[in-house]
Amino acid sequence: MTEQNNPYDELRYYSKPFSYTSIALLEGNATLWGLTPPALKGAKVLELGSSFGGNLISQAVYYPDTKFVGIDLSEIQITQGNEIIKSMGLTNVRLETKNILDITPEFGMFDYIIVHGIYSWVPDNVKDKILEICRENLTPNGIAYISYNTYPGWKNREVARDIMLYANKYTQNLPLSEQTRRGKAVVQLFSDAIKSIESEKERNKFRISNFDTIQNQDDHYIAHEYLEYHNNPLYLNQFVDSLHQHQLAYIGDTDFQLSYISWMPQHLRDMINQLSETDYVAREQCLDYLYDVAFRRSLLCHNKLQDKINRTETVDKRLLGKLTFVKVGKENNLAHVFGSKEVAKLLEYFIYQVGSFTIKSLTDYVSNNKEFKNITKNEIYSSVLLATVLGYINVFLTPYQIYAFEDNKTYVPKRFTQYVQALLEGANEYIGAGNMYNGSIEDLNKLHLHIMSQMEKPTTKKALNASLKEYLIQNEYRDMNNNKLIDEEYDCSGLCNSLCETLANLGYIQPATL
Fold first, then answer.
1. What is the Cα–Cα distance from 178 to 140, expressed in whole angstroms?
2. In 10 A of CB 65, how many CB atoms?
3. What's the CA gap between 261 and 475, in Å, rounded?
4. Which of 294, 353, 387, 497 is the least buried, fewest Cβ under 10 Å from its Cβ?
5. Block mean pLDDT (10 aa), the chain, length 514
6. What is the model's pTM?
7. Cα–Cα distance, 485 to 473 (Å, whole number)
8. Secondary structure of 327-344 in HEC code, one letter for each residue
9. Distance separating alpha carbons of residues 276 and 392, to the nearest angstrom
10. CA–CA separation, 250 vs 151, rounded Å?
11. Which residue, 304, 313, 319, 351, is CA-closest to 332?
């Protein structure tokens, strides 16, 4: 592939929300690291390489008092993204066709800067410019996020990249989509061949696994990950050296397991401490060596904040008490994480049933339930921190408030209705839907949209039921239990409650008094 091609126009990259780039998560993580990031309300957010805006639009709809700006070199994608924004009626987000190299301090100051899926895939002068923007366009207490491919994990993957590039060495005039299919096919041939050689099958099992994984990934991802002209992984220590050269400080990874070692067995902690001494970069580099890390999501700030970053892996109880913890969706393995069965049971209940909680809600629950009487406050604090580090829960300083439907007391702001309507009418071909923490959602449909349209002003559940039944009959929906057309005898109260619960969990329902 020649460098002059614009592969992002040739093979469109689906623009979806990424939970790790949620400004609420960035604020929460930075707070846990001991910093004081800018408040979300009234903040200004910049994304470099925004594509159609899918990672910003999903946040803009939830934070109407926050300004979002995305830039991208692809005029096609920016134009389409702005049309989507206009159709949703959003006024707090805009996209611009702009080269990263053309951004100057005059472009504006931003409290949060997001650079996801860009850094490893651009030449060195653009990498330097990205870091320059993080220095020159970031407010004094601002937080930047940069993701990138890392060694040593990417060394194994480079074999597949080399095979795919070589397979297309003499066919670079073909469309990128065809080059991608060709590359995947050749990788599959090698995978099958290695499996057929008994002496090589076991020795190359990791390479086989990588080759086979490629077959199950979307073509647009494979094209931009394996066939880009630039894809330059680097070691964490090299990335941090670049930050220092630009007067920036490395905070840590959004995945605390890549920055903390307190969750590890004692013998591994001892080894890492012996190798790294007091060097936090060396400590994290050891983690990358141990776990063959291939991708990082790093947080950074201005160098003057370096001394405020808490690298002790202990967090002040007062600070933990200010935070809210929200489940991530990780498979429950807590019984093997905590030595105490009572602690494991307590965390299982709050993570997998309650879903969102604070230290206070935990301590109140413990004090009112005799089966947990032996759990100390120190155990509560330490177990919550461990569950955070291990990725069972995310941490937020400003959690998004959830409200249940109440007759004549709640409503759905029109911006949410317009957001869902635009997605269902075709915007979802370009961007993915996201929730309040920028996690992907896929289950919204016309029934949700209808209920939302009826809730733009406070109403009653009785009125919603009547409106829903009329909608089902008019549109000839069928009863899933007997496949009969729904008629006036159909009881849709259960369906209505379910739809309202979904809208509440998405944060669409708001008190009419706000």
1. 47
2. 10
3. 57
4. 353
5. 48 86 98 98 97 97 98 96 98 98 98 97 97 98 98 93 92 88 94 91 88 90 87 96 98 97 96 94 97 97 98 96 96 92 96 97 95 93 97 98 97 98 97 97 94 97 96 93 90 96 97 83
6. 0.93
7. 8
8. ECCCCCCHHHCCCCHHHH
9. 27
10. 18
11. 351
- State the Cα–Cα distance between residues 402 and 354, nearest whole angstrom: 13
Q: What is the DSSP letter of 425?
A: T
- Compute, in degrees rounded to 10, the torsion defined by CA atoms 218, 220, 225, 229: 150
What Cα–Cα distance (Å) separates residue 295 from each residue in 195, 227, 236, 251, 288?
A: 27, 17, 10, 16, 9
Tokens standing for residue 148: 């990138």
Q: Tell me the C-alpha distance between 372 and 256, whole Å.
A: 28
**DSSP letter, residue 37:** P
Helix (H) or strand (E) holding 240: helix 236-245
421: tokens are 């309507």
Quick one: tokens of 96? 């611009």
Supply 359's token pair.
């230290």
Q: Quote the pLDDT of residue 388.
A: 98
Q: Distance between CA 58 and CA 18 in Å, rounded?
A: 10
State how far the alpha carbon of 238 is from the alpha carbons of 124, 280, 297, in Å: 13, 14, 14
User: E strands within 303-411?
Assistant: 324-327, 356-357, 393-396, 410-411
Question: Tokens 């005898």 belong to which residue?
Answer: 489
Residue 100 DSSP class: G
Query: What number of other Cβ atoms are within 10 A of residue 162's Cβ?
Result: 11
Give bridge partners of residue 327 from the DSSP assignment. 393
Instruction: Strand 67-72: give its sheet, edge to edge.
Output: 93-97, 67-72, 44-48, 110-115, 138-149, 295-302, 248-253
Cα–Cα distance measured from residue 214 to residue 230, given in angstroms and rounded to the nearest whole number: 19
Pairwise CA distance, residues 514 & 504, whole Å: 16
Would you call 479 helix, strand, or coil by DSSP? coil
Which tokens sit at 332?
């429950």
Which residue is listed with tokens 């004549």? 408
Q: Which amino acid is at 53?
A: G
What whole-number distance in Å separates Cα of residue 81 and Cα of residue 85?
6
Encoded amino acid at 198, one letter = E
Q: How many helices (H) and strands (E) does the chain have?
A: 21, 14
pLDDT of residue 218: 87
Question: What is the rounded distance in angstroms from the CA atom of residue 225 to the CA atom of residue 208?
Answer: 18
